[in-house]
Write a structure and sequence with these properties.
Distance between the termini of chain A: 43 Å
Protein name (chains A, B): DNA-binding transcriptional regulator, FadR family
Structural class of chain A: mainly alpha
Keywords (chains A, B): DNA-binding, Transcription, Transcription regulation
CATH class of the largest domain in chain A: Mainly Alpha
Strand order of the largest sheet of chain A: 1-2
Oligomer: homodimer
CATH topology of the largest domain in chain A: Four Helix Bundle (Hemerythrin (Met), subunit A)
CATH superfamily of the largest domain in chain A: GntR ligand-binding domain-like
GO molecular function, one term (chains A, B): DNA binding
CATH architecture of the largest domain in chain A: Up-down Bundle
Largest interface: A-B, 68 and 68 residues
Largest sheet of chain A: 2 strands, antiparallel
Radius of gyration of chain A: 19 Å
Shape of chain A: globular
Number of strands of chain A: 2
Strand content of chain A: under 5%
Number of domains of chain A: 2
Pfam families (chains A, B): FCD, GntR
DNA sequence: CTCCAATGGATCGAAGGCGCTCCATTGCTG
DNA sequence: CAGCAATGGAGCGCCTTCGATCCATTGGAG
């Protein structure tokens, strides 16, 4: 009649995980940093007005402003008052991220594999509207043209664009999360020009397959692309 | 220098989504209901002690107890005091779930496709420990033996077991979430014996492929299995 | 029979977060 | 040059949630 609660069924552990990601303030800061680090809001770019942001994040304006004030003091953003004022992203900001442990690395890489290969396949299987096709090509061009400074930001945007192409908000959100975790890992290893060239070629293969509507090829190309990054990370962080 | 915030970049929407799932109390209730509905804690089974649960859920005991009291009044659980007391799951409880809209259906089914096919492939690609192999066979047998009353619970457990077999906590958690959303959809359509037989055959194919270590076959079998459910749902809820 | 350990039950003060309202600044518009 | 609109800045009272502590109940252990 009673369960063996000692080793605790892994299914239970999955369901009885923490309900809230902790402090609302910290979580808000984390989100804003995500947007900056992923390059979704580029350096110099303007964040949405506080009233809109707080509403989107489901957080009071008071809390949002506390988060923004902290980011201001840490030099990530800058606020200007008055009409046509706003909050702006300041620097490319190379913040040191905490080094994750081995289990967390495998967890991140495995979840990433499932989500990104799935997204690539699904994007290829859909009939993409012209605007989406343009966006994909644009992100690909940006990533190819990016020097070492902007590479990871444009790379993140390209991968996010693929997720968006599936028109599945949950999938995009999940992938944005895992991407943030991945960037935390990538921050700990050097960016080698040879890898960059290699990645660009793979990106082109992936996007071509998606635009061609070849789901199998898109999945395979993505899998190969991810394997490269995964091997690199395991090598540096093992 | 400023962003086109009007239609709002979908990537921004993905990042600037709500920080907290709302009320801590409601979220806690939802989690407990998940555990009950997914059959992770079977009818008559005992929940972990309040102190442990509140700690796992990252919620104060006060809040957890409020949630439990609500579930008690709705007849889902029952509490007994004293040593060897505890909180126990009461009935199979057929609660009516709110009907989701069309976009939510596609969102759920698409995310599910990405996660479940990924999980099947990854589980097959791993070298599974004996205990995991046994667990998979056990869940398969339970689902096959289950009558119409217990089918969806055992089915949920089987799919969760596949996710657990990947040894990737994030993936298991994500899949548990999407499964809950799926069950909300399934609750709105009838369970047809013919589908049940068909599903059981597909389950066997999937598990066999996983135990054989045939990743490609596992993915394909899972994709076919999901297509059946998806078509059924689209048919009934379109 | 007594004690004890494990569980649920209850209360209180402190902190976090929210909704609301009003203020301050700025630059375009007429 | 005066007004206005859009933005950031700041304060107040309320509700939720938390952490800690103590109480109540129960059944086995000694």
């Amino acid at each position: 009649m009673s369960l063996p609660n000692d080793p605790l069924d892994p299914a239970l552990a999955a369901l009885f995980r923490p309900v809230r990601a902790g402090n609302a303030l910290e979580e808000t800061m984390e989100r804003m940093l995500q947007a900056i680090r992923l390059g979704v809001v580029p350096p110099g770019g303007q964040l949405p007005p506080e009233r809109e942001l707080s509403s989107r994040l489901g957080v009071s304006r008071v809390t949002l402003r506390e988060a923004l004030r902290a980011l201001q003091e840490s030099g990530h953003v800058e606020s200007r008052r008055g009409r046509y004022g706003g909050t702006f992203v300041r620097v490319p900001s190379s913040d040191p991220l905490p080094a994750p442990d081995r289990d967390a690395i495998e967890d991140t890489l495995t979840l990433r594999y499932a989500l990104e290969t799935g997204a690539a396949e699904l994007a290829a299987a859909r009939s993409l509207p012209p605007a989406t096709r343009r966006h994909l090509r644009g992100c690909l061009a940006d990533a190819s043209a990016a020097g070492i400074d902007h590479y990871r930001r444009t790379d993140s945007r390209l991968h996010l664009a693929i997720a968006e192409a599936t028109a599945t908000p949950s999938l995009t959100a999940a992938l944005a999360d895992v991407r943030t975790r991945l960037n935390a890992l990538l921050a700990a290893i050097p960016l080698i020009p040879a890898n960059l060239t290699h990645s660009n070629a793979q990106h082109k293969t992936i996007i071509d397959a998606i635009l061609d509507g070849d789901a199998t090829a898109a999945r395979a190309a993505m899998a190969e692309h991810l394997a490269g990054t995964a091997a690199l990370l395991r090598g540096f962080l093992a």
